[in-house]
UniProtKB/TrEMBL annotation:
Protein name stated in the entry: Ion transport domain-containing protein
Pfam families: Ion_trans
InterPro entries given in the database record: CNG_cation_channel (IPR050866), Ion_trans_dom (IPR005821)
Signal sequence coordinates: 1-21
Membrane-topology descriptor: Multi-pass membrane protein
Ion transport domain sequence ranges: 3-195
GO molecular function: intracellularly cyclic nucleotide-activated monoatomic cation channel activity; protein-containing complex binding
Gene3D superfamilies per the UniProt record, alphabetical: 1.10.287.70
Keyword terms of this UniProt record: Membrane, Signal, Transmembrane, Transmembrane helix
CC annotations in GO: membrane
Localization of this protein: Membrane
């Protein structure tokens, strides 16, 4: 379940940023992820819990406890089939973003491992590196979306994909990931913006805020 959730966090943003047509492998991956989400709900109906220090195993109580909990509502919202509208309106990966609601399971997994591992500091470092890599991926996708919206106009944007070299999907992703990594780690020279959209602070402030929060969360 955890690996499928991580794959969704990566694939959905990649679809939104770079994919302009439907690929069979992407459709299969999305369908498999939805199936795993559905099976997870079935498993949660039979997951035990503690009541006054005793493990509850009765099926009816387990089901009632799960249905009355917030995770049940979040799990249902995460499976909202908005992506079926793509058969009517065309490719729209944004319709699958309710799957991101399932991210609360990442927090539960993180604290569960941290409370059980004998190397909590190492686990925090690994988690920080993972967050930075994921943010680099997200902002790389956003960078390419912004470049495409600006029609690749300006020194700061991605090269206009009018040649086979810059049109390749691998080059698009790696170049965008490179730019976002330099920005996120503040080790690169940033080109001065030239339009109101480029000046939008929300594209940079979340990076600084997330970096500060991640560094603050490490306790040595």
């Amino acid at each position: 379940m955890y690996y499928v959730l991580l794959a969704n966090l990566v694939i959905l943003s990649g679809e939104l940023g770079f994919v302009s047509k439907t690929y069979p492998c992407v459709f299969v991956a999305d369908s498999f992820a939805d199936l795993v989400y559905l099976l997870d709900i079935v498993v949660q109906f039979r997951t035990g819990y503690l009541e006054q220090g005793l493990m509850v195993c009765e099926a009816r109580k387990l089901a009632g406890h799960y249905v009355r909990s917030k995770p049940f509502l979040m799990d249902l919202l995460a499976l909202t089939p908005l992506d079926l509208l793509q058969f009517q309106i065309g490719i729209a990966p944004l319709l699958r973003f309710p799957r991101f609601i399932k991210v609360y399971r990442c927090y539960r997994f993180y604290y569960m491992v941290e409370s059980r591992t004998i190397y909590p500091n190492l686990w925090r470092v690994v988690n920080l590196i993972h967050i930075l890599l994921l943010l680099s991926h997200w902002f790389g996708c956003f960078y390419y979306m912004l470049s495409e919206f600006e029609n690749y106009d300006g020194d700061w944007t991605y090269h206009k994909p009018d040649s086979p070299e810059w049109k390749a999907l691998g080059r698009k992703y790696l170049a965008s990931l490179y730019w976002s990594t330099l920005t996120l780690t503040t080790i690169g020279d940033l080109v001065t913006p030239s339009s109101n959209l480029q000046y939008a602070p929300f594209s940079f402030l979340p990076q600084a805020a997330c970096t500060c929060v991640c560094i603050r969360s490490i306790e040595f």
